[in-house]
Design a protein that fits this description.
Blueprint: E1 4-9, H1 17-27, E2 31-36, H2 46-53, H3 64-68, H4 72-78, E3 81-87, H5 89-97, H6 103-110, E4 115-119, H7 123-127, H8 129-140, E5 144-145, E6 149-152, E7 158-162, H9 166-173, E8 185-190, E9 195-196, E10 202-203, H10 210-221, E11 225-230, E12 241-245, H11 249-259, E13 265-268, E14 275-277, E15 296-298, H12 302-307, E16 314-321, H13 325-336, E17 340-345, E18 357-364, E19 367-375, H14 376-399
Parallel strand pairs: 1-2, 1-3, 3-4, 4-5, 8-11, 8-13, 11-12, 13-16, 16-17
Antiparallel strand pairs: 6-7, 9-10, 14-15, 17-18, 18-19
Helix pairs in contact: 1-2, 1-9, 4-6, 5-8, 10-14
This protein binds cytidine-5'-triphosphate.
Length: 400
């Protein structure tokens, strides 16, 4: 199945590079549809991009003819990825503000696909605090930014603001057979589990699933076939991720073990309930006793089970600690036989459950890296990069 890319072109001199980008995306097997802003048409004609993409180029939000075909909501739904190249300072400002004042910004708001920007502008505009603030806001929402590069600019000046070359953008997008995780099967657990006490009550925890969902999304964007076994979560299923919905730890374990044979990489981001009621009452428990004692039994440790498999996948676990972070996490890494562990401090001022931000200390046998405090979407990107780096290093050492 080819990846469907919606290419947004905004009005900067680098818009001429969009032609080569469309051609080369097509060569890599992507299906491309192009949307241009009004200003982009001053730099390159829709006809050029139409000829190269093989599809009508869309420019206007209020175009009855075009809307009668694939309307803008369908177009937003169609895309697996929205790439804006070049992204001007004005476009970034409008995206950061959440405006929907033309077709491209409307599509960016309406899509659930990952958004990737390749900025291009004069270096003073790039370094202006207004642009830098917009950039930070977009990054915090999980928007991926490619570049800009530093170099000679069309205005004759030198500095950061030059759009990456189409080849560099393609490499960063890692499409098709070239992608870092192409053909690899990844299994992610996410969210909390619910352990039923009776037909209406359960034991659970405050996990939102945010970290697991963000990781599943960013690993899928790196080309992996991602299946996510998730406990109940209000979050939308990320693009190109297959969801297996479960409730209890035992259901999660069964869903994982049924799929682990084919899996290359296992990321356990779920907050699995450590205990479950020994028995689930068939009828609703009545309040006719002065005290109620729950008898809990231990749930299986899914991560430890997977890590103990002979010839099993590369395993990544999480650890939440209230003190001695590195020491405790290193002990867990060894005790469970993991390839990597991402540990965070809970109970303090920084991060943890129900907080949008987190910081992680990532450990593996013989190595460590700190990922500083940041929004979970941004942290998930950094952690994905590190997982891919370690996974590929491990796979290479096993081949040699
Ligand atoms: N995990 C799991 N199955 C369980 C419990 C935990 O797969 N039954 C996974 C989690 O998804 C996470 C890691 O194991 O990746 C957390 O390990 P755990 O030992 O439960 O960490 P803590 O909850 O921090 O442990 P403890 O309370 O023992 O410190």
């Amino acid at each position: 199945m080819s990846i469907k890319i919606l290419l947004g072109v905004s009005g900067g001199i680098a818009a001429y590079k969009a032609a080569e980008l469309v051609r080369r995306l097509g060569e890599r097997g992507a299906e491309v549809r192009v949307v241009m802003t009004a200003a982009a048409r001053s730099f390159i004609t829709p006809l050029t991009l139409q000829a190269l993409s093989g599809h009508e180029v869309r420019c206007d939000l209020l175009d009855p003819g075009a809307e009668a075909g694939m309307d803008h909501i369908e177009l937003a739904r169609w895309a697996d990825l929205v790439l804006v190249a070049p992204a001007t300072a004005d476009l970034m400002a409008r995206l950061a503000a959440g405006l929907a004042d033309d077709l491209l910004t409307t599509l960016a708001l309406a899509t659930t696909a990952p958004l990737v920007l390749a900025p291009a502008m004069n270096h003073r505009m790039w370094l202006n605090p207004a642009t830098q603030e917009n950039l930070a806001r977009l990054r915090d929402r999980g928007v991926r930014i490619l570049g800009p590069a530093e170099g000679d600019q069309a205005c004759g000046e030198w500095g950061p603001g030059r759009m990456l070359e189409p080849g560099e953008i393609l490499d960063a997008l890692v499409l098709g057979a070239d992608s870092q995780l192409a053909g690899r099967q990844v299994l992610v657990t996410a969210g909390p589990t619910r352990e039923a006490l009776d037909p209406v009550r359960y034991l659970s925890n405050r996990s939102s699933g945010r970290m697991g969902y963000a990781l599943a999304e960013s690993l899928a964007a790196r080309g992996a076939e991602v299946t996510m076994v998730s406990g109940p979560s209000a979050l939308a299923v990320p693009h190109r991720v297959e969801l297996v919905a479960v409730e209890s730890a035992l259901e999660m374990e069964a869903a994982v073990m049924a799929r682990i044979g084919a899996c290359d990489l296992f990321v356990a981001a779920a907050a699995v309930s450590d205990y479950r009621p020994q028995a689930t009452a068939e009828e609703k428990i009545k309040k006719n006793q002065a005290e109620l004692h729950l008898h809990l039994v231990k749930n299986p440790d899914i991560l430890a089970r997977v890590a103990a498999l002979n010839g099993g996948p590369f395993t990544v676990g999480f650890a939440a600690e209230t003190r001695d972070l590195e020491e405790q996490a290193r002990t867990k890494l060894a005790a469970k036989g993991l390839d990597m562990i991402a540990a965070n401090l809970v109970g303090g001022e920084t991060g943890g459950f129900e907080r949008p931000e987190n910081a992680l200390l990532v450990l593996w046998p013989g190595g460590r890296r700190s990922l500083p405090l940041g929004p979970k979407a941004r942290l998930a990107e950094a952690l994905s990069d590190l997982i891919v780096e370690r996974y590929l290093a491990d796979a290479a050492s096993q081949d040699s």
